[in-house]
Every structure is written in structure tokens, then in C-alpha cells.
């Protein structure tokens, strides 16, 4: 069986305009410099912007493209997990398959232990409680916990169709160059395409994906607020005395605008189908404090853009128009012009 390595290409680009709105408080942080400069403990991400009509400078809240790309990646991962839901195998079955791989050298087995077996088991058990026999890739337990180990080995399920690699286990993520032990695993799992459907678009270590996500900027009025929280003592679970910190957030109801550029070559592109048909009206969770309900966001619209975009037209409240809005739109228009001239795109990030 031949493993088909999907190579990135830039034969055609499609540009999508996405608008989303936060339904609850939204607190997406920025870089460390912003944190160091703000009087608030956990400030939201802001960039200095010049208001076009007045020349005044303001700090404009925004959602960094890296945050947005991460959130969309999880959502697409989730979708692919659901799609490939009937070809899951258990951790034990994976070990059984690995045992049967004949071309695994000792070093490959050591890597499998360190990068796959240990990280998965350590989620459930302390490493002193189990033993891995590297030669046979057999897991045994200490003192009456074999049953627990059995249930972990049976219970942790993973997809075998590689529709979405397992991003929380280092050894099961897509990566380039591909270590030899992974090639053996992929072969035994009869994987035909690499990287997985998610990394194909969102990229993996050593692999450039096929989408570019831009920073999202507010296009409606917004209100920045902050609230004070108790730090929780992690030993007692009680509120730590006098350990208060404040966290900045945007009040619900801010509409953001962003663009995604997708490189594609066929008409039935699965990602484009997901983007234009499944993403609209769906909910995303973004930023800090999601455990107390922060960061609920709904996708209001996803539209393919075919003509050049006008920054002023995109803004409901044109008093907000800034150089950042103009820069965003100009960067996107470059892709649109490149497409109509039949030239290859030059990547913005
Ligand atoms: Zn992957």
C-alpha cells in the first residue's frame, strides 16, 4: 500500500468573509507586552489604530488570527471526528496492531512508548503504577490496578481513518518529517492520506496548511469592561484570601469581521463545504473563563467574496473606520486581485 502525501499547492484561492458575534462576555488575551503595559491583570488583545475620519488614536480590541485559527481548527476537528465516528479503535487494539508490525526496531518502540503510550496512560495513572514492556509493547499494572489499566486501554478510543489526528497526544499528531515509527503505524492502520484532513488545511509541524486566517476586527460598537475574580487555592479549592485579579472583557454583542483565504483545486472541497454550509449559525467557544460562561460566539454569516471589498461598507458604524480595517481589507483584496489576474497568491502570513 502506498501512502499518499498531500502536497500544498496554490492553484486557486477562494476568499470568505466571516462575521461573528459574542453572546457572552469575551476575553481573548493578547501578547505579553500588552499584559505588561496594562493596569489590568488579564487585558484583552488590543492594537493601536488611527481613526480614519478624525485622525485620533485608539486601542482597538481584536481577535488575533492565531486564536481564531485555533478555535476554527477545534471546530473542524470535532466535525471530522463526528464524520469518522464509526471507525474508532481502542488503545488496546492499537497496541495489538503495533505489536504485529514487523519492521519496528527497538528505537521505534521506545518512541512509541514515550510519545504515545506514556502520554495516554499518564492522563489516567501515575507512571509508577504501570510498566510498559518495550519489546512486546505490553502494559501491565501494579498491585491490583490491572483492572483500571484494562479499562483505560479499552476505553480510550481513537480514529483510525486519520480523518483527524489526535492533537492532544504528541505521538499521534501529524508532523513532518515523519518519524519512522509513525510510518509503520500509518501503514498498519491502512491510512492512505497524510496529513489528516484537519492538518491538510490548518497545517502541522513542518507542514504549511491551505488556509490563511486574518485577525478579526470589531465592526460594530463595543464596550470594554472588567470584573474582579477570586484566585482559587488549588490545594483547598477555596477562594484564596485577598488574592483577587481582574479580567478585562468585551460585553456581549460585538460583531467582528474576518476573512479566510482557502487554497483549493477541486469543486468538491470538503473544507469549503464545511465552511460555507456547516459553520454558519454554529457556536464557538473563544478565550478565557469559558468555565463560567465567557466566550460564547455565534457565526452570523459566511460568504464567498468575489469582488473587491470596501472597508467603509463593511462597517455598521463608520465612525469606527480605522487604518487597521483598511489594512485588513487591502490584504484580502490583494488575494482577490491575484486570483483575477491568474497569478499565484503571495502569502500574507
Ligand atoms: Zn493531523
TrEMBL record:
<dbReference type="Pfam" id="PF03787">
    <property type="entry name" value="RAMPs"/>
</dbReference>
<feature type="domain" description="CRISPR type III-associated protein">
    <location>
        <begin position="20"/>
        <end position="297"/>
    </location>
</feature>
<dbReference type="InterPro" id="IPR052216">
    <property type="entry name" value="CRISPR_Csm3_endoribonuclease"/>
</dbReference>
<dbReference type="InterPro" id="IPR005537">
    <property type="entry name" value="RAMP_III_fam"/>
</dbReference>
<dbReference type="GO" id="GO:0051607">
    <property type="term" value="P:defense response to virus"/>
</dbReference>
<protein>
    <recommendedName>
        <fullName>CRISPR type III-associated protein domain-containing protein</fullName>
    </recommendedName>
</protein>
<keyword id="KW-0051">Antiviral defense</keyword>
Amino acid at each position: 500500500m502506498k501512502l499518499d502525501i498531500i502536497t500544498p499547492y496554490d492553484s486557486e484561492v477562494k476568499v470568505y468573509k466571516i462575521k461573528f458575534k459574542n453572546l457572552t462576555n469575551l476575553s481573548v488575551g493578547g501578547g505579553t507586552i500588552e499584559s505588561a503595559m496594562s493596569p489590568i491583570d488579564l487585558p484583552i488583545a488590543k492594537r493601536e489604530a488611527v481613526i480614519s475620519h478624525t485622525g485620533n488614536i485608539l486601542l482597538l480590541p481584536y481577535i488575533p488570527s492565531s486564536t481564531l485559527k485555533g478555535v476554527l481548527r477545534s471546530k473542524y476537528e470535532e466535525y471530522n471526528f463526528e464524520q469518522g465516528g464509526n471507525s474508532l479503535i481502542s488503545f488496546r487494539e492499537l497496541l495489538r496492531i503495533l505489536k504485529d508490525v514487523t519492521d519496528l526496531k527497538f528505537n521505534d518502540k521506545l518512541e512509541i512508548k514515550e510519545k504515545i503510550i506514556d502520554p495516554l496512560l499518564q492522563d489516567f495513572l501515575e507512571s509508577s503504577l504501570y510498566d510498559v514492556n518495550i519489546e512486546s509493547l505490553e502494559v501491565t499494572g501494579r498491585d491490583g490496578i490491572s483492572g483500571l489499566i484494562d479499562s483505560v486501554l479499552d476505553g480510550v478510543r481513537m480514529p483510525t481513518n486519520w480523518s483527524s489526528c489526535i492533537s492532544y497526544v504528541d505521538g499521534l499528531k501529524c508532523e513532518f518529517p515523519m518519524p519512522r515509527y509513525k510510518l509503520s503505524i500509518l501503514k498498519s492502520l491502512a491510512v492512505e492520506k497524510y496529513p489528516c484532513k484537519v492538518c491538510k488545511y490548518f497545517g502541522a509541524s513542518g507542514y504549511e496548511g491551505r488556509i490563511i486566517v486574518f485577525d478579526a476586527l470589531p465592526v460594530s460598537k463595543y464596550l470594554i469592561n472588567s470584573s474582579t475574580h477570586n484566585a482559587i487555592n488549588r490545594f483547598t479549592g477555596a477562594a484564596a484570601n485577598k488574592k483577587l485579579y481582574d479580567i478585562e472583557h468585551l460585553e456581549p454583542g460585538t460583531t467582528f469581521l474576518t476573512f479566510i483565504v482557502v487554497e483549493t483545486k477541486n469543486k468538491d472541497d470538503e473544507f469549503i463545504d464545511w465552511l460555507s454550509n456547516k459553520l454558519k449559525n454554529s457556536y464557538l467557544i473563544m478565550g478565557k473563563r469559558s468555565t463560567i460562561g465567557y466566550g460564547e460566539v455565534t457565526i452570523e454569516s459566511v460568504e464567498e467574496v468575489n469582488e473587491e471589498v470596501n472597508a467603509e461598507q463593511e462597517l455598521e458604524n463608520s465612525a469606527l473606520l480605522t487604518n487597521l480595517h483598511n489594512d485588513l481589507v487591502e490584504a484580502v483584496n490583494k488575494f482577490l486581485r491575484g486570483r483575477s489576474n491568474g497569478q499565484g497568491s503571495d502569502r500574507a502570513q
